[in-house]
TrEMBL record:
<dbReference type="Pfam" id="PF13669">
    <property type="entry name" value="Glyoxalase_4"/>
</dbReference>
<protein>
    <submittedName>
        <fullName>Glyoxalase/Bleomycin resistance protein/Dioxygenase superfamily protein</fullName>
    </submittedName>
</protein>
<dbReference type="InterPro" id="IPR037523">
    <property type="entry name" value="VOC_core"/>
</dbReference>
<dbReference type="GO" id="GO:0051213">
    <property type="term" value="F:dioxygenase activity"/>
</dbReference>
<feature type="domain" description="VOC">
    <location>
        <begin position="12"/>
        <end position="158"/>
    </location>
</feature>
<dbReference type="InterPro" id="IPR029068">
    <property type="entry name" value="Glyas_Bleomycin-R_OHBP_Dase"/>
</dbReference>
<keyword id="KW-0560">Oxidoreductase</keyword>
<keyword id="KW-0223">Dioxygenase</keyword>
Length: 191
């Protein structure tokens, strides 16, 4: 049997995400237990995204995230804020914990090729969205790989200002991981 796995997917691993109930509590754990000091919070992260879908249907899910680096690995903490999402599903089924691994591909063409490859392998897209802006994009999708590896797999790409911010945060030259995203909760949690 021929191996037709695009090699760019496997070389792009760079992220692990944990779904949490509260970003501040999770950040404090990572700081005090694992020594990951620098974090960038981004509230209402899905509010201005387009092409949002949940299991193939349009959905207006909402979430907030915090980002930190352990070496070159991006740690994402995701907090469900509303709507139907696989974050909420995970919390209901498993509680807090590891949710997905991420592969960052270089551009939209690789992203589309990776999605086509995953679909050709019979994987189902569970959730997706797109931060689309003239200055930079981040397109992402989660694929249901739970039966094989116990969690979801994310494909994503970033470009423009978004990529500059990611690389600047990794290098320690900026504290702003998601340009323009609120770093404080705009409304009290649960309000």
């Amino acid at each position: 049997m021929a191996d037709n796995t695009p090699t760019f997917i496997g070389s792009a691993f760079d992220q692990i995400c944990f779904v949490v109930e509260d970003l501040d509590t999770a950040i404090e754990h990572w700081r005090t237990v694992s020594g990951v000091e620098r974090w960038s919070k981004a509230y209402d992260l899905a509010r201005h995204q387009v092409d949002k879908e949940y299991w193939g249907e349009p959905e207006d899910f909402q979430f907030s995230c915090a980002y930190g680096f352990a070496g070159d690995t991006l740690i994402e903490l995701a907090e469900h804020d509303g709507g139907r999402s696989i974050y909420r599903d995970w919390l209901d089924e498993h509680g807090t914990g590891p949710h997905h691994v991420g592969f960052r591909v270089k551009d939209l063409a690789e992203f589309e090729a990776a999605e086509a490859h995953y679909a050709s392998k019979g994987l189902q897209k569970a959730m997706a969205g797109w931060f689309r802006a003239d200055a930079g994009n981040c397109k992402w999708s989660y694929w249901d790989t739970r039966a094989a590896i116990g969690c979801y797999t994310e494909l994503y790409y970033v470009d423009g200002v978004a990529l500059e911010a990611l690389e600047g945060f990794r290098a320690g030259t900026t504290d702003d991981f998601i340009p323009g995203a609120p770093h404080e909760r705009p409304t009290p949690k649960g309000a």
